């Protein structure tokens, strides 16, 4: 069970990630946002989906944030960091989270198609993973789900 203060902290950073996701969605990207904070809850790095804008299949919000945090902290070992992301990470991002040695992952909504943390597959707890990460899903779940559903609905409407 989460302590109330911890819950409020998680909501604060997930709200920040939701704002980044909105920026991505406004730019024509799937609206996913990510925030990385340190153990003192100081903002280290942010990311939003940039696949279309950068023409880069690896430019997921999590990867963008992890790259930025590694550059800022001058290390690829991010064990002292927590990653907040609005959507459960895919296999590529789950691999980067494990290899980046992040200390904690907090995500908003499960991804029933490609979720690689708990929903479809479980990369962090797989025997082949060389790092264990604390995971908490469901923070601002309904807000994260609504943002994604609204964006996909508006994209379908525009195509018709």
TrEMBL record:
Keywords: Hydrolase, Metal-binding, tRNA processing, Zinc
Membrane spanning residue stretches: none
UniProt xrefs under InterPro entries: APOBEC/CMP_deaminase_Zn-bd, CMP_dCMP_dom, Cytidine_deaminase-like, MafB19-deam, tRNA_aden_deaminase
GO biological process, one term: tRNA wobble adenosine to inosine editing
Cofactor: Zn(2+)
GO MF terms, alphabetically ordered: tRNA-specific adenosine-34 deaminase activity; zinc ion binding
Enzyme class: hydrolase
Active site: 62 (proton donor)
Residues binding Zn(2+), per UniProt: 60, 90, 93
Span of domain CMP/dCMP-type deaminase: 8-120
Pfam families in UniProt: MafB19-deam
Entry note: cofactor: Binds 1 zinc ion per subunit.
UniProt keyword Lyase present: no
Enzyme Commission numbers on file: 3.5.4.33
Catalytic activity: adenosine(34) in tRNA + H2O + H(+) = inosine(34) in tRNA + NH4(+)
The family this protein is said to belong to: Belongs to the cytidine and deoxycytidylate deaminase family. ADAT2 subfamily.
Function: Catalyzes the deamination of adenosine to inosine at the wobble position 34 of tRNA(Arg2).
Subunit structure, interactors included: Homodimer.
Matching HAMAP family: tRNA_aden_deaminase
Protein known as: tRNA-specific adenosine deaminase
Organism encoding this protein: Cuspidothrix issatschenkoi CHARLIE-1
């Amino acid at each position: 069970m989460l302590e109330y203060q911890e819950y409020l902290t998680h909501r604060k950073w997930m709200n920040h990630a939701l704002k980044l996701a909105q920026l991505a969605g406004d730019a024509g990207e799937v609206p996913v946002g990510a925030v990385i904070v340190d153990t003192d809850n100081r903002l280290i790095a942010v990311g939003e989906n940039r696949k279309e804008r950068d023409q880069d299949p690896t430019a997921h919000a999590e990867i963008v944030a992890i790259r930025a945090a590694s550059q800022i902290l001058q290390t690829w070992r991010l064990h002292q960091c927590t990653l907040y992301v609005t959507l459960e990470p895919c296999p590529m991002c789950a691999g980067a989270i494990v290899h980046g040695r992040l200390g904690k992952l907090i995500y908003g909504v499960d991804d029933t198609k490609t979720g690689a943390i708990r929903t479809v597959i479980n990369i962090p707890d797989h025997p082949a993973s060389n790092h264990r990460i604390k995971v908490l899903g469901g923070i601002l779940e309904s807000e994260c789900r609504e943002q994604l559903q609204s964006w996909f609905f508006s994209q379908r409407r525009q195509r018709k």
